[in-house]
Amino acid sequence: MSLRLSTVILPTDRWHEEGREKWRHAEELGFHTAYTYDHLSWRTFRDGPWFGALPTLTAAATATERLRLGTLVTSPNFRHPVTLAKDLMSLDDISGGRITLGIGAGGNGFDATALGQEAWTPKERADRFGEFVPLLDRLLTEESVTERGTFYSAEEARNIPGCVQRPRLPFAVAATGPRGLRLAARYGQAWVTTGDPKIFEEGTPEQSVEALRGQIEKLGKACAEAGREVAELDKILLTGFTPDRSRPLESVAAFVDFAGRHRELGFTEIVIHWPIPDSDFAADQGVFERIATEALAQLG
What we know:
The chain has helices at residues 15-29, 53-63, 81-95, 122-141, 178-187, 205-225, 252-265, 285-299; strands spanning 4-8, 33-36, 68-74, 99-103, 144-147, 154-158, 171-174, 190-193, 234-238, 269-273. The strands form 2 sheets. The chain has an 8-stranded parallel beta barrel, surrounded by 4 helices. Strands 5-6 form a two-stranded antiparallel sheet. The chain has 300 residues and is an alpha/beta fold. The protein has 8 helices and 10 strands. The longest helix has 21 residues, at 205-225. It starts with a strand and ends with a helix. The protein is globular. α2 runs parallel beside α3, α4 (122-141) runs parallel beside α5 (178-187) and α5 crosses α6.
């Protein structure tokens, strides 16, 4: 099974200082896709520079030619399907059809209350996500949409001429629970996971592999219920949140071992964070670039 290697570039750099060159360099290194987080602020980066995901991707689209671009991930925490669909259609056009939308239910971080609302419970997030994704799908595939939902509505919302990618840009749905997996099976062109958060602190890499195996099995069952083959979906692992932490980026050999184990599980794409000094994503830039240019060839 072939494996793609992608990166995620956090939106922490001024565009005309380091930002533009990072995205260009990602293309030069041969990454399949360069993603960015879609948050208003995030964890330990909250008190430093943090730019908007969609403007950053728009700039990246004009600075690159071949590199696919995307969010990892967008959520309903501060988005509405109607305005998001218009922005995504425009971004897909500007990029010449190189956009993937990573989308998830969101969490209880800083985004959850930034608009002045109370943080939603897990059930409320799942309820909203279950309405958000189908409406966004319609908005990106139909010229005019009217829908009255419990949480999200549209009134003759128009998206003409639609996406460059047909019938719409691909969705990469982040999910591990049953409701999210059903959405991935029905609407996703890809599925995204970061592993099992319950074993991040004290678990082992071996336990993580077994947890991921279980997630893929559940995805397969959801696909069967939706009348799809699980092989139709790309399976994306965003690294850095399993018990392996940053160890796969310590050497090319370490990454090849990590990637090989996860390819055997069925993953088709592995995403590594662009190094950020003095952060949870600190890594040797030279090793990172060698992984980008050498690792896949060593996997065979």
